Amino acid sequence: MSYEMWIIVTGALVGASCGVIGAFLILRKIAMLADAISHTVLLGIVLAFLVSHSMNGAFMLAGAVLVGLFTAFAVQLLNSGGIQEDASIGVVFTSLFALGVILISLYAKDVHLDVEHVLMGEIAFVPWETVSLLSFGELPKAFVMLGSIFLLDLLLITLFYKEFKITSFDPGMAAALGIPVLLIHYVLMVMVSVTSVAAFDSVGAILVVAMLIAPGATAYLLTDRYSAMLLLSGGIGVLDSTAGYFIAKAFDVSISGSMAVAAGIIFTLAWILSPRYGLLSRLFSRHAVHKLQR
Amino acid sequence: MKAVEVSGLTVAYDRKPVLTDVHFSVPKGKLIGIVGPNGAGKSTLIKAILGLIPRSSGAVRIFGQKYSPKNKDVGYVPQRGSVDWDFPTNALDVVLMGRYGCLGWVRRPSKKDVEAAKECLQKVGMLQFAGRQISQLSGGQQQRVFLARALIQEADVYFMDEPFAGVDAATEKAIISLLNELKRRGKTVLVVHHDLQTVGEYFDWTMLLNRKLIQCGPTKDVFTISHLQRTYGGKLAFLEKEQMLIKQ
């Protein structure tokens, strides 16, 4: 595959895996918690590097899962101790992220783990860092990592499809039915953590948030069906990243930045043009809606 | 054997007790109204019984068995306001969720489950809205969907949190005839209820609650002025009006 094609495919994988997960985040109203985790996994990556002295994917994932779960747990702990949820998220997220940044600048100066890279990512370098995989030959490392995580996400969503659904819609009822609501929450947090890490290298800590939230928020405006929202959200993620790549190419600017901008533009279009919930249809059908409600 | 037996139930939020040492038991096949002022802990009682919020102490037995959420004898209807009705799903789907508990991991609802869900929607007069997005339903219709979801659980004991709150007269009638049908089939139904005027008409048992249990028993014994006074405190003018209603 050409150099350009690898970048587009990698971006599409970021968009699809973040997009599908994002749908759950929007429905459970925990987008900000995901924002926090996508930043604090940085600490996990640095810790994994300090322990293993390598940029091995498995160590990075393990570190990210630990710190991601710790973030979710710490937020819940503070929250149940009487601190408002947004304040809990703010405190946990900034401290752990800052700790990660300090550790990088202290210990990891010499490796390619530098602050700018983890914040912004560099998807343009993706095709050059390859690993050989069985009979497939040399494949970009980021592609292999993202592909595996995407498959893992799909597997978990298939396994826990109805549990994700009922614990999002009615956690009280779910608990009364004997469904382990907290376990499902932490499964989702693990998915957010590993997906963030996998997407990290390509789009960076800041822009992975755009991919986690914008596609889900866009899909939410476009459908009234749960399964359709999951599929649409993944599809919109792919659209966002691909459109971003071509914007970046046309204006010769940052690819990851353009992807986030594309995500914003596509969300805005949906917000204005969505057939049922868009600004235009709401303006024109205000009269009709009033009639319906009566 | 008692359908529901609760002993020594205490619940506290932030170390402030909300319910203190509640003991009661109800026999099988009764409609029980749980009545008390705002903040009396009525919803808390139900949630604590079902284990949705932690209990400081106390034990719950359903038909003599220690209760756990795996117990399929128990159905629950939460307050309508407790969920997000903008969730992308339709009425039929919400009813099917009542079956998720007994499906087990990975398995999806079968055709038989879908048929059962439609039957339950039929029973609450909502079959024609099966495919409708839930935010497009009126409050009363949403409440009926919740009841249909409870019916599909085929439980023996039901806990319902304010099913009559904010519904229209037609829905109120539909709900009460459904409750009576459940009773005829030998089910036990505990209902958090707000409207004192209808307690005598709807429920054969009444539980008066205000942070502790005031009384629990047959409505004609329990629903008296002196007990209501103990439950509601000194709101006399209001109670005198109720007294007139009771006499009628």
Give the gist of this structure:
Helices cover 80% and strands 3% of the residues of chain A.
Low-confidence segments of chain A, ≥5 residues, pLDDT <50? none
SSE order of chain A: HHHHHEEHHHHHHH
H-E order of chain B: EEEHEEEHHHHEHEHEEHHH
> Could you please say which CATH topology of the domain at 1-70 and 190-248 in chain B applies here?
Rossmann fold
By CATH reckoning, the class of the domain at 1-70 and 190-248 in chain B would read Alpha Beta
Give the percentage of residues in beta strands of chain B: 15-25%
Number of strands of chain B: 10
Query: Which structural class do the helices and strands of chain A define?
Result: mainly alpha
Tell me the distance between the termini of chain B.
Answer: 35 Å
Mean pLDDT of chain A: 86
Most extensive chain contact?
A: A-B, 30 and 35 residues
The main sheet of chain B comes to: 6 strands, mixed
